[in-house]
Amino acid sequence: WSLVMQVKMQVARVWSTVTDDAADDHEDRRALQIILTGVPPEMIRVLAAKDTAKKAWETIKTLRMGSERARG
């Protein structure tokens, strides 16, 4: 999933918004839009409330790590 999202953001030229802190608002919102298209409906509200796409991306990484630990 994360690789597909990364490629989508690279094509849209907004991947740097989740890797750097220096993104303009328009690019940040475009990146967040792409992220929101790839998550389950129950996650949309939580992620859309994040200040930046980078914070949303970090939240997904944290949630995913937690579910991998639960499976182990």
Per-chain topology:
Layout: H1 2-11, H2 16-19, H3 25-37, H4 41-48, H5 53-71
Helix pairs in contact: 3-5
Question: What would your notes on this structure say?
Answer:
With 72 residues, the chain is mostly helical. 75% of the residues lie in helices and 0% in strands. The protein has 5 helices and no strands. The longest helix has 19 residues, at 53-71. The model has no long low-confidence stretch (mean pLDDT 87).
Number of strands: 0
Query: Which regions are unreliable across 5 or more consecutive residues at pLDDT < 50?
Result: none
Main sheet properties: none
- Amino-to-carboxy terminus distance: 20 Å
Note the run of SSEs as H and E: HHHHH
- Strand content is under 5%
> What best-fitting shape do the alpha-carbon axes yield?
globular
| Mean pLDDT across every amino acid position | 87
Structural class: mainly alpha
Radius of gyration: 12 Å
Number of alpha- plus pi-helical segments: 5
Binned, the helix content reads: over 70%
Summary, kept brief:
The chain has 72 residues and is an all-alpha fold.
Highlighted features:
mainly alpha
